[in-house]
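name: query_chain
kind: protein
chains: 1
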Amino acid sequence: MTRIGVSRRKALETGVCALAGAGFLVTANALAGTGQSATAEETVRKWYKAWENKDLGQFQAMMAENFTFTSAAGDDHISASAFKTQCWDTQIDFIGRFDLERVVGSGNEAFVKYLGHTKNGKSFRNVEYFRLRDGKVEALECYFGGKSTFPSAVSNGK
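structure:
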């Protein structure tokens, strides 16, 4: 019998990629069967436009009353006011634009993969999961594409 050596890291990476692919296929199939996905996608696209346009009023109007934000940067279901202070206020001046590479919405959920561009020509890539209610963002989870891949860290070379 021949043994094939595979590191745990490679096995984990392969498993994660397979899981992500399977999740995308399930979501894409669900998307085909719902009429609500356009609304989710429209809401998500408006969210990123608010960032690009630095439109705080639209941004805040899009947040549900019970909005929460979670990320690997230590944010664990923080409130809308904490999100504004910790994320909007600290990152908005670095945002140039977003290229939404993939937006998949189904019912009251959406996944987005984007390439963000800072004002000084740097870029960063993230994936975000949105849970929506009545056209507003109820919960947002950000999965950073790499170490410190948010606008200020990328802009400052950290």
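note: The first strand starts at residue 63 and ends at 71.
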